[in-house]
């Protein structure tokens, strides 16, 4: 198969972790007889430095013409980076929002599961019998507060700002459907998260969930208020299979879900439209504080590449090969610094510290 992949290495640790994911993809291509063509494109801070804007229309075009986009991370330290002196519409994050909207990537899939090798890193691990959860958050990605009308102005001498939360039924229906389709291939359970005791958009959201569920009689569906969902995620994450929610709630809950796995450096994500096209990126940010040190954890990006093979290219066996290699790498004791046990009583027996590029090599060796 010919794979045409646009690559946004991005800012901070982005280039280091993307290099590892490419190495792993190349290994898969070699083993299974595929040909990959990469096209490097700029977005975020690195695009600002070259073009003065975080994403050009030409870049969007190149992305659109590819089969999928592999992305590292974008953005810098808001306290020190000159990018954050620019107007908000010209900062690195604006590029990310623009590409999501321009390519219609309305469904953001963020799996969160506990690797048994890292179970001790789970902040909830103390519970008897340990924890064992495996959930996926399906976050609406091109609507709601992120894309509603917004302004800041002075009204009668009072500084005032407004953001707008708006959804129409079609925007809700398509992402809810995605969630049901995913649940049908997993444990058959959808939890829709809203704030229907307060918000009109949430009450419409609930109605649409009810309507869509009529087409999926085998899926167990329930709704939960977002405040309760935030609590349930730390109390009993095992209860969740597929969680579907609007953009802002999904942003917040997915960071929470990532953290309870022990390290946000392990979690992948996919942003999809109604075709097989997708943008694949780790769930974590650009970590400017450790950029250039070759110590970042590349696993989230490597697993994002696996999601790409599965969702965009339908290469399930190849995706399994990457995921199994990651698992094996961990069970063989290889650890980047973020997933090394810490503290004076930490047991390091059988563990070996790996640099970012070494971790990429360890995964490649196991494919
Ligand atoms: C994410 C990030 C982005 C978002 C930021 C960088 C704009 O937090 O992908 O979750 O809020 O969507
Ligand atoms: Mg976020």
Contiguous runs where pLDDT drops below 50 for at least 5 residues? none
Question: What is the radius of gyration?
Answer: 21 Å
The average pLDDT is 95
End-to-end distance, in Å? 18 Å
Q: Could you give the count of β-strands? A: 14
What profile does the largest beta sheet have?
A: 10 strands, mixed
> Roughly how much helix do the residues carry, as a percent range?
25-40%
Strand order of the largest sheet: 2-1-3-12-11-4-5-10-8-9
> Into which percentage range does the β-strand content fall?
15-25%
Order of helices and strands: EHEHHEHEEEEHEHEHEHEEHHEEH
Number of separate helices: 11
Bound molecules: 3-isopropylmalic acid, magnesium ion
Helix/strand-derived class? Answer: alpha/beta
Shape type: globular
Provide a descriptive summary of the structure in words.
This protein is 38% helix and 21% strand. It is an alpha/beta fold. The strands form 3 sheets. It has a 10-stranded mixed sheet, sandwiched between helices. It has a two-stranded antiparallel ribbon with strand order 6-7. It has a two-stranded parallel ribbon with strand order 13-14. Helix 7 (226-235) packs parallel to helix 8 and helix 10 (316-331) packs across helix 11. The structure holds 3-isopropylmalic acid and magnesium ion. Residues 93, 96, 251 line the site of 3-isopropylmalic acid.
